[in-house]
Amino acid sequence: MPEGDGRKPEDGGVPPGDDASPEGAARYQGPRATEVEAPAKDPEKDPSYITRTRFMTGVAIAAGGVMTAAILVPVVGFAVADNFDSEPARWVDAGPMSDFPEGETSSIAISGPDPEADRRAFVRFRDGEIVCIWNRCTHLGCPVSYSPGGDVFACPCHGGAYNSVGQVTAGPPVRPLDRFDWKVVTADGEDVATRLDPSGLRDVSPDDRLLIGVPYSLNDSLEIFKLKAPGEPLDGVLKNLYPLG
Prior knowledge:
Elements: H1 52-80, E1 92-96, E2 104-110, E3 119-126, E4 129-134, E5 145-147, E6 152-154, E7 161-162, E8 168-170, E9 179-185, E10 191-194, E11 209-218, E12 224-225
Antiparallel strand pairs: 1-11, 2-3, 3-4, 4-9, 5-6, 6-7, 7-8, 9-10, 9-11, 11-12
């Protein structure tokens, strides 16, 4: 057995019994480096570890999502859905034209398609034209009153004011007063004049009948729209809340 080269191991010699050749290399018997333990894991970085802060943050996010949905769903639904079902085409006999003298504004009761839809109309017959105005304020739906002296309409609830044809002059209403379709017929049911062609009013007879039709809404330019709910604007920026208007 080889006896080494006579030098001490610490001087680079080969210890007795060890062979310097690879074939005879023995396991190293010298000092070893200290094994370093792996660092402890930070529990807060563990995805499965939930701290109080993380828990409360999750609760706040969930609550915020629920509240946002609770607010947006009705708003979106109200905006994109029709607010009123169209009333069936119908004509209500409001009486003979003798009850509506030219140059005056008369107030009459209109029966709706159901008891809850009963309403009052102001029939304005002036300057060869008839305008049938609904007395429902377009702010929140309160009944408006007519002032013959000033030839204006006013709402007692929140100070809404309208001119002689129902256009807004003051207060919170978002659009003019809604109107009703109308036509004048003979006793035999033949048309004498209609809203679209009022020229026949020049030859109207006291015995001819005034018929009131379905209501509709107007914007500030008096353009006609399907009937809208009180508070629903047809002009300005807020109309974008009702994209299917």
